[in-house]
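Researcher: Next entry in the queue.
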Amino acid sequence: MLPIHERLAELWTIRIRRQLTGDEQADFEHCLAVNAMHIRQLANLHNLSLAASMAQDVEWQHEICQRLEKLSGQPPGSPQP
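Model: Structure for this entry, 81 residues:
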């Protein structure tokens, strides 16, 4: 989990109890944008991994998996969700 996800959860919880301030709303929108970008990057890497697998390019697939692990914040070799 990225720190941005923790802040997003915090702001979501605050939003349930009261209206967000202007600064909090701006922070919330920023968190949503960063989360969307992060998810797009992950989806792109998963698609590239599938392409590498279909091309039977093991070296390329390993490179993509390393990038996925780094972007996911997971230790190397851990299973992907």
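Model: Residues 3-72 form one domain.
Researcher: Noted, moving on.
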